[in-house]
Amino acid sequence: MFDIRWIRDNPEDFDTGMKARGLDPQSDRILALDLVRRDAQTLAQNIQSERNRLSKEIGIAKAQGGDADAIIAKVSETKAQESEAEEALRVADVALREALSTLPNIPFADVPIGADESANVEVRRWGTLPSFDFKPKDHVDLGEGLGGMDFDTATKLAGSRFVMLSGGLARLERALAQFMLDIQTEENGYTEVNPPALVNDVTMYGTGQLPKFAEDLFRTESGYWLIPTAEVPLTNIVAEKILDAGDLPRRYTAMTWCFRSEAGSAGRDTRGMIRQHQFTKVEMVSITHPDESDAELERMTGCAENLLQRLGLAYRTLVLSTGDMGFGARKTHDIEVWLPAQNAYREISSCSTCGDFQARRMNARFKTPGEKGAQFVHTLNGSGLAVGRTLIAILENFQNADGSIDLPEALHPYMGGKTRLEPAT
Prior knowledge:
Elements: H1 4-9, H2 11-20, H3 27-63, H4 69-101, E1 121-126, H5 139-145, E2 149-150, H6 151-157, E3 164-165, H7 167-186, E4 191-192, E5 198-199, H8 201-206, E6 218-219, E7 225-226, H9 231-235, E8 242-244, E9 250-259, E10 278-288, H10 293-311, E11 315-319, E12 331-339, E13 344-353, H11 357-362, E14 365-367, E15 375-376, E16 378-386, H12 387-397, E17 405-406, E18 420-421
Helix pairs in contact: 3-4, 7-12
C-alpha cells in the first residue's frame, strides 16, 4: 500500500516505479480517485460545519423565546445530506483503497530492470559442484529407491502434487526443520513461533496476498485461508500495534506447512517434490526501524546462506529483476541450490525487504521517545529454508552409485547418529 500524499507530491516517480514493474502509468487514475475522495470529504465536513452552525442558532432562538422550527427543519435536511455525503466518502475511500491494493511495491533504484528471470543478476557463488563417476539420479528415483517417497499413495489420498514421506526420509525432513530452527533461534536471534495455519481475510490482506492473488491460495468453506507461507501470520503479529523503537528489530521464525494452489504453474515441475500444493518451510520475518532494513536484508540473506554452507550444499545468490520479484518486495535476494539431476541451480530461499508497504496495509507502527507521532515499521521476510527442496538437494548431491545417501555431518545428531540412508532391500 502506498502513501497517497507521496503519490500527490511525486507522480512521476510513482509512474517510473510502475513502469519498472511492467505497468502503464498509474498516477492519473489514482489521483483522480483521490480527488473524488477529497471532494467527498470536503463536502461531508462542510455539511457537518453547517449543522453545527444551525444547532447553535437553535439554541440562541430558544434562549430568546423565538420560533426555532424553521431552523430545526434545516437541521433535518442537513442530516440527510450528511448521511449521503458520508456514504459517498465511504464509496470513494473503498475505490481508492482497492485501486492502490492491487499495485505492486516500487523497486529500489539498484534493482535490475527486466521482464523476467533472465534479467536477474548473480552476486556470488559458494561451494564446489559435486562430480560423479556414474549418472546421478534425480530425487524421485533416489527417494523411491530408499523406500520412503511415495507419490502414488499421496495421489490416492489427495491428488496430484502431493507426496508421502516415510521412514528415513520422514525423519530427514523433521531433522532438517529442527536443525534450521535451532540455528535461527540459538545463533541468529529469531524467536520461534507456532502460528495458525488458517487465517482470515484481514491477515491475508496485510501481507499482500489479497486481493490480487486469491486464485493462488486455498480457502475453506468457512472463509479461512490456508497460509502460503508463515510470512503471513508472523508479519501480522505486529498488525495494528504501535511498538517502542527500542523493541526493534523483532525477529520471528516458524516451521509450518505451506499451501499453494499453483494456479499459474500448470505443466511446470510436475515430476517430484519441486512444486507441490503442500510443503514444509522454515520462515524468517523481521520487523525493523526504517534506517535498519537495508542491513537487515543482508543479515537475513546471510542467515539462509549459512544453513546451506553447514550442510555442504553449493549455491548461488541472485538479485531478482523488477519483473521476477514478488508483489510486496522492494528488493529480493534469491538463493539457488545446485541440483545435479537437473544440472541447474534451483530456488531454495527468497529474502525480501518490503519497506513500509506491508506495514501500511497492517497499520504497524513504532514510536520513538521524545518524538511526536508514530512511523511505519519496515518488514522483511525470507525462507530459512524450504525444507522439502533442501531434502531434494541432499539426496541428489550426496548420492552414491548404489543409491545410498551420505548425510551431512551437521544432521548426524538430528538423525540419531545415523550417517547414511540405505536403499530399501
